[in-house]
């Protein structure tokens, strides 16, 4: 369970942005809607433990994440939160499977090549295992970034505008894969977007004003 | 996956700039290695050759030249000294041992030295095959000479006038190899030793005259008389006591027509002359290392700008700040350490190469010797790596990942 309680944040010299309380139950799939500049990215960063809010509390599976030490928070994030960005941002000097192993080792989990193969297989890119990011298409790269996000079976899967740089066909595929992966890994899914193509797929919506 | 492996992979992803940085470091370290090895070996050789010789007495002129010609056998002698005066000096109470030297001939560039058994004693020479020279025109040759000129015991050869040229060959007398010395690791490996009379006789033939009359088998009295016209090149002196240092050289310089030069003093002077060049080169190498350090820094700093998103992603994957710091600093250290190792290896290789093509066999250099001091080069490489990588690493450590990620 993930909960957001009376969270607000302000950047230096700017007005406070308040966020209404939010409770996400295990396995739910949520859409986070908001125009550019409405604080969508800020809220996502707060949820993923990379931006400490000025006020309020964020709990993920009964852990108040901003009460952890910096190092513990890094490790907690690595194990419990999977993030998918608008751009795939894979490490260029590492092969696809090495990028996934990297995620395992940063979370201080043992290298599990079986799991790597399993995840790549479920996303239909097992053939690209030894390829480097430069050799893959945009759609394939986005799949790899989904694979990297779910490799450690996180409790929370967060996607920030995962479809906005993709065409209709690939957007639909990526969205479907996200839903499917969050289901397969029993992860709670939050997709932040202003992409109208995505809206219909979700029942739960958290809207920023 | 360890930070080291991530750094390693990252370096391999931009091979050109990594190679350039490594080459710069390797070049600087290589020069320093060569200087270190060469100056060390030269100093050692200088010491080795003049180990038991306290003083050289020869004709007036440059003391350095006297030392160079009579200890290291590289320069021309300053002139000759009368045998009679040399003998008087040898009998001085300050002198424990005096070695007469008569230079002037060569065989294919190898110097022929006329001397006596004192030479064998002062250099502690041992014979490997054959025996020491006893009769006129018998020679005992150094180990390197036997090898390079392919001479065996029993072989004969003609000496040539002068110290290097082959043009004026003494056809009238033939030298015979009677023995080959065991390798000594000093200048005697490259000499042909014979008795003084042989050298004199070689040259008497040119003048064709009176000298012929004072041949072997003459009485002691006659020999005394024979000293009149005869000359030596120089005299190597071993003192009887340390006290001699204060008195004997001054006595030679003031009361005779000859000069006394101390090998230790002149070697130090010679080395300080070489030292200026060595020092210049050292600064040059240090400058190259400095440029290399700056280049590694710029490279890491620039790549950090490109990679800050990568590093932020690593943080979201669970990497701690410390880990990012390690990844960046390891890149700098891998670069410079690899460069240092390559540089040290290149330095040794280059010196070995130089040694192989060196003409003067007296001071042959080798790259196969390793010195303890090279560990300092290694430490310097490490320090440069840390120095160049510390600022980028601190930046990676401090980076605000939320800000980087939101500037998508």
TrEMBL record, chain A:
**Coiled coil, from the record:** none
User: Entry's InterPro entries?
Assistant: AAA+_ATPase, ABC_transporter-like_ATP-bd, ABC_transporter-like_CS, ABC_transpr_LolD-like, MacB-like_ATP-bd, P-loop_NTPase
Q: Domain of life of the organism in this record?
A: Bacteria
Q: Does the keyword Transport apply?
A: yes
Domain ABC transporter, which positions? 2-206
UniProt entry keywords in alphabetical sequence: ATP-binding, Nucleotide-binding, Transport
What are the GO MF terms of this UniProt record? ATP binding; ATP hydrolysis activity; transmembrane transporter activity
Gene Ontology cellular-component terms for this entry are:
plasma membrane
| UniProt KW tRNA processing keyword | no
Name of the protein in its database record:
Putative ABC transport system ATP-binding protein
User: What taxonomic ancestry is recorded?
Assistant: Bacteria, Pseudomonadati, Bacteroidota, Sphingobacteriia, Sphingobacteriales
Automatic annotation (TrEMBL), chain B:
Q: Which Pfam families match?
A: FtsX, MacB_PCD
Name one cellular component (GO) term.
Answer: plasma membrane
Broad class of the protein's primary localization:
membrane
Q: Annotated region Disordered: where?
A: 205-227
Q: Which UniProt keywords apply?
A: Cell membrane, Membrane, Transmembrane, Transmembrane helix
Tell me the InterPro entries matching this sequence.
ABC-4/HrtB_transporter, ABC3_permease_C, MacB_PCD
MacB-like periplasmic core domain spans which residues? 18-199
Per the UniProt record, which residue ranges are transmembrane?
Answer: 281-304, 324-355, 375-397
Q: Can you give the residue ranges of the ABC3 transporter permease C-terminal domain?
A: 284-401
Topological type in the membrane: Multi-pass membrane protein
Q: Where in the cell is it found?
A: Cell membrane
The answer to keyword Signal applying to this record is: no
Q: Which PANTHER family match?
A: ABC TRANSPORTER PERMEASE (PTHR43738:SF2), ABC TRANSPORTER, MEMBRANE PROTEIN (PTHR43738)
Q: What's this protein's name?
A: Putative ABC transport system permease protein
Species this protein is from: Pedobacter steynii
């Amino acid at each position: 369970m993930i909960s957001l309680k009376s969270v607000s944040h302000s950047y230096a010299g700017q007005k406070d942005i308040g966020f209404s309380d939010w409770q996400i139950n295990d396995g739910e799939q949520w859409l986070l809607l908001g125009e550019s500049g409405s604080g969508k990215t800020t809220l996502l960063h707060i949820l993923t433990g990379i931006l400490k809010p000025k006020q309020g509390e964020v709990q993920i599976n009964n852990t108040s994440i901003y009460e952890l030490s910096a190092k513990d928070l890094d490790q907690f994030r690595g194990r419990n939160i999977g993030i998918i960005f608008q751009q795939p941002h894979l490490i260029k000097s590492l092969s696809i499977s090495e990028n996934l192993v990297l995620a395992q080792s940063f979370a201080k989990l043992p290298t599990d090549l079986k799991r790597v193969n399993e995840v790549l297989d479920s996303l239909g890119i097992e053939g690209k295992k030894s390829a480097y990011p430069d050799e893959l298409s945009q759609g394939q790269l986005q799949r790899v970034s989904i694979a990297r996000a779910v490799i450690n079976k996180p409790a929370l899967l967060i996607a920030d505008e995962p479809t906005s740089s993709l065409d209709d066909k690939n957007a639909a595929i990526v969205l479907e894969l996200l839903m499917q992966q969050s289901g397969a890994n029993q992860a709670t899914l939050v997709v932040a977007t202003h992409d109208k193509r995505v809206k219909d797929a979700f029942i739960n919506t958290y809207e920023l004003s | 996956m360890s930070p080291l492996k991530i750094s390693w992979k990252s370096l391999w992803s931009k091979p050109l700039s990594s190679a350039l940085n490594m080459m710069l470091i390797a070049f600087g370290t290589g020069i320093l290695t060569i200087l270190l090895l060469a100056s060390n070996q030269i100093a050692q050789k200088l010491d080795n050759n003049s180990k038991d010789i306290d003083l050289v007495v020869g004709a007036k002129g440059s003391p350095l030249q006297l030392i160079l010609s009579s200890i290291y056998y590289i320069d021309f002698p300053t002139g000759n000294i009368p045998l009679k005066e040399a003998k008087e000096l040898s009998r001085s109470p300050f002198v424990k041992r005096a070695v007469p030297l008569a230079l002037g001939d060569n065989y294919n560039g190898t110097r022929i030295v006329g001397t006596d058994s004192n030479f064998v004693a002062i250099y502690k020479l041992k014979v490997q095959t054959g025996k020491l020279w006893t009769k006129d025109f018998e020679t005992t040759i150094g180990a390197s000479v036997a090898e390079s000129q392919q001479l065996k015991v029993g072989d004969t050869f003609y000496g040539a006038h002068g110290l290097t040229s082959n043009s004026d060959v003494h056809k009238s007398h033939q030298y015979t190899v009677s023995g080959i010395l065991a390798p000594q690791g000093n200048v005697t490996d490259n000499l042909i030793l014979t008795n003084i009379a042989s050298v004199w006789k070689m040259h008497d033939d040119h003048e064709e005259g009176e000298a012929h009359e004072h041949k072997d088998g003459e009485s002691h009295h006659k020999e005394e008389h024979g000293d009149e016209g005869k000359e030596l090149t120089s005299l190597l002196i071993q003192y009887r006591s340390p006290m001699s240092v204060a008195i004997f050289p001054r006595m030679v310089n003031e009361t005779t027509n000859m000069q006394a030069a101390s090998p230790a003093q002149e070697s130090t002077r010679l080395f300080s002359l070489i030292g200026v060049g060595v020092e210049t080169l050292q600064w040059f190498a240090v400058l190259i290392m400095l440029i290399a350090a700056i280049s590694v820094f710029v490279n890491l700093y620039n790549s950090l700008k490109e990679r800050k998103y990568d590093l932020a992603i690593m943080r979201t994957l669970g990497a701690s700040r410390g880990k990012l710091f390690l990844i960046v600093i390891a890149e700098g250290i891998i670069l410079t350490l690899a460069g240092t190792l390559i540089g040290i290896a290149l330095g040794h290789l280059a010196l070995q190469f130089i040694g192989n093509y060196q003409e003067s066999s007296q001071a042959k250099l080798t790259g196969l010797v390793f010195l303890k001091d090279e560990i300092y080069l290694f430490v310097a490489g490490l320090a440069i790596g840390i120095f160049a990588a510390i600022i980028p690493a601190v930046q990676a450590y401090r980076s605000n990942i939320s800000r980087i990620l939101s500037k998508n």
